[in-house]
Design brief:
The complex is a heterodimer of chains A (117) and B (113). Chain A is mainly beta and 117 residues long. Chain A is built from no helices and 12 strands. The N and C termini of chain A lie far apart (41 Å). With 113 residues, chain B is an all-beta fold. Chain B has no helices and 11 strands. The chains are: A mainly beta (117), B mainly beta (113). The interface between A and B is medium-sized, with 20 and 23 residues.
C-alpha cells in the first residue's frame, strides 16, 4: 500500500526567507501524481503545486517549487520569499493515475508552518 | 476547476442523533470522495461516492455509520449516524476528474456534545 510521510510536524521561517518542507512516499507504481496542499485556519484545502511522476522537470508555481527525486521517493516543497499569508498546515499527497484501482488521495500527516514577521 | 458548495459549514449536535452533510458541485465530475479530519490530524478517506450505486468504503468505515448517497454527477450526501463525541471532526467533500487535481469543499466542522 502507498504511504506518505512528513517528518516535520512544525516549521518556522522568517518573513522573506526560504523554507523547505520534506515529504517522502512509498509506492510500487511507476506512474502517479504528487501534490502539496495548503490548509489555512479557514480549513479550505488549497492546491499549491502538483507533479506528474513521468516528468523529470520539477514543478514550479511562482514562489513555490518542488524537488522531486523519483528514485529516492522524495518530494520536498520550497517556499521562497515567505509571506505572512503562507502560514498554514501543508499536506503532501499521493495519487495513482486515473484508471488505477482508485483515484483517492493519500495524505501525509502535515507540517504546520509559522511565518515570523 | 470545480466549485464545491458544502453544507452546513458547522454544526453542534447531540449524541445519538444524525447529521446529513451535502456536497454540490458546479459541474459534472467523475469521482467524489468524503474525508474525515479529526482535530489536529490529517485527512482520512471515508469512502468513494459512486453515482447510482453503493459507495466504496475504506477500512474502518461502514455504511451503517456513514451512509452516502450520490444520485447524480454533481451531488452527494454523507450522513453521520448515531453520533458520539468521537465523531467530532471536520468532514470534507472532494471531487476529481481523470487527471486533474482534487478540489475540496470548505468542510463541515461537526461537534458532538
Amino acid at each position: 500500500a502507498q504511504t506518505v510521510t512528513q517528518s516535520q510536524p512544525e516549521m518556522s521561517v522568517q518573513e522573506a526567507e526560504t523554507v523547505t518542507l520534506s515529504c517522502t512516499y512509498d509506492t510500487s507504481e511507476s506512474d502517479y501524481y504528487l501534490f502539496w496542499y495548503k490548509q489555512p485556519p479557514s480549513r479550505q484545502m488549497i492546491l499549491v503545486i502538483r507533479q506528474e511522476a513521468y516528468k523529470q522537470q520539477n514543478a514550479t508555481e511562482n514562489r513555490f517549487s518542488v524537488n522531486f527525486q523519483k528514485a529516492a521517493k522524495s518530494f520536498s516543497l520550497k517556499i521562497s520569499d515567505s509571506q505572512l499569508g503562507d502560514a498554514a498546515m501543508y499536506f503532501c499527497a499521493y495519487r495513482a493515475p486515473y484508471g488505477g484501482a482508485t483515484n483517492k488521495l493519500i495524505f501525509g500527516t502535515g507540517t504546520l508552518l509559522a511565518v515570523q514577521p | 476547476s470545480a466549485v464545491i458548495s458544502q453544507k452546513p459549514s458547522r454544526d453542534i449536535c447531540q449524541r445519538g442523533t444524525s447529521l446529513t452533510i451535502q456536497c454540490q458541485v458546479d459541474s459534472q465530475v467523475t469521482m467524489m470522495f468524503w474525508y474525515r479530519q479529526q482535530p489536529g490530524q490529517s485527512l482520512t478517506l471515508i469512502a468513494t461516492a459512486n453515482q447510482g450505486s453503493e459507495a466504496t468504503y475504506e477500512s474502518g468505515f461502514v455504511i451503517d455509520k456513514f451512509p452516502i448517497s450520490r444520485p447524480n454527477l454533481t451531488f452527494s450526501t454523507l450522513t453521520v449516524s448515531n453520533m458520539s463525541p468521537e465523531d467530532s471532526s471536520i468532514y470534507l467533500c472532494s471531487v476529481t476528474d481523470r487527471d486533474t487535481e482534487a478540489f475540496f469543499g470548505q468542510g463541515t466542522r461537526l461537534t458532538v456534545v
